[in-house]
Amino acid sequence: MAGTLRSRNRRNIDDTMEETPTTKVPDIEVLGASSATSDIEIYAKEVLHSLIADNLPPTPNNFSLYFDRLLEEKSDSLRKQIHSMLELEESNDAENSIRLEQTLKQGFTSVKGILGATANLYKNMSLMTKILDQRKKELGEHPEVQEAVGIIATLEGDVGKLNSILKTQSSQMKTIYDETAKIVKKVENETIFDNQFGVYNKRYLLTKLEQEMGLVKEFNHTSSLIMIELSRHLVKSINNEKATLLMTRTIARLLLKTSRRSDIVAHYGKGTFAMLLKHTDIESAKKASERLCDLVSNSNFFLADREIQLKISIGVTNIDAVYSVEEIIVSAMDGIELAYTTKDIDYSVSLRS
Asked: pTM for this structure?
């Protein structure tokens, strides 16, 4: 599993551009373009040029991937300039779906709250009926208060009618709740978002992995997968379930912070995360893992009066279309195990041969 990447007939973005005799688009800063619009137009032409040089169709998806990938090699000022423009764009469909999922779940929580309040009201009315019955018995032992007994009997009848109405309404609310629960459950089976950690969920990850494997097979490019988890040694030393959850959520936020727009960050399960790095070879994936480890190690976590240095373990693997999605994930998980057995290493590459 572990070892050196075997030779394949694949093209790395950087390698292909070096091998293909093409005319390089002049760098934006050399041209001295003054406006942001001119800068991004020139950069867009460079992205399109690179796609054609790599014999990839200039589809919106491929263009977006190369747009993000090539931007990493540009100056900080250019990256900031383009990122500021991108932030002004409207959210994509995936982000809209996430918001819809969150709204739906919030609505279901509200329906559940209404059902609980109605049930409590019904219980209180039943209790009131019992209290009235008890007071009626007590007054019946005193003949001089027969008039009061009559009033209580009338009140008891009114409360009984109200109680019957509430019982019927509670039953109707229960039916509505059950129907709503079925709808929410059906939606949850199609969701793409993990509410607990604020990233994509396992279902979405598996779907995107399947799609990427098809693209790798079709266009012969290179993509990678990395799996990330909070260091088991750190979790063991902390021995605090709540603190571990908070640290894991911190890791999720850091993964989102450092990822490219084209990367897929997802919660695979039990606090283990995955990042699908499209059009990224193993060497670039290793560099991304190093950046992640450095970012996390520089983010301290405070538990009471104790300062804890966060640490993660990462497994890196390549996406090979000859294997199944499950085998690729297992390969990345094996990389995590290798990282634990290798001294002074927070990440390790695991490749199928």
From this structure: 0.68
Q: What are phi and psi of 11, to 5 degrees?
A: -115, 125
Can you spell out the DSSP letters for 48-84? HHHHHHTT----HHHHHHHHHHHHTTS-HHHHHHHHH
Cα–Cα distance, 269 to 294 (Å, whole number): 23
Tens-place pLDDT, residues 105-152: 777 788 788 878 877 877 887 887 788 778 777 777 776 666 776 777
Q: Which two tokens stand for residue 345?
A: 């290493």
- Per the structure block, which two tokens stand in for 85? 């423009």
Position 13 pLDDT exceeds 60: no
Residue that has been written with the tokens 């009066």 in this structure: 305
Residue 303 pairs in a beta bridge with: 306
The SS3 of residue 221 is: strand
CB 19 within 8 A of CB 56: no
Q: 349 in helix, strand or coil? A: strand
Cβ neighbours for 191, distance < 8 A, ≥ 6 positions apart: 101, 201, 203, 204
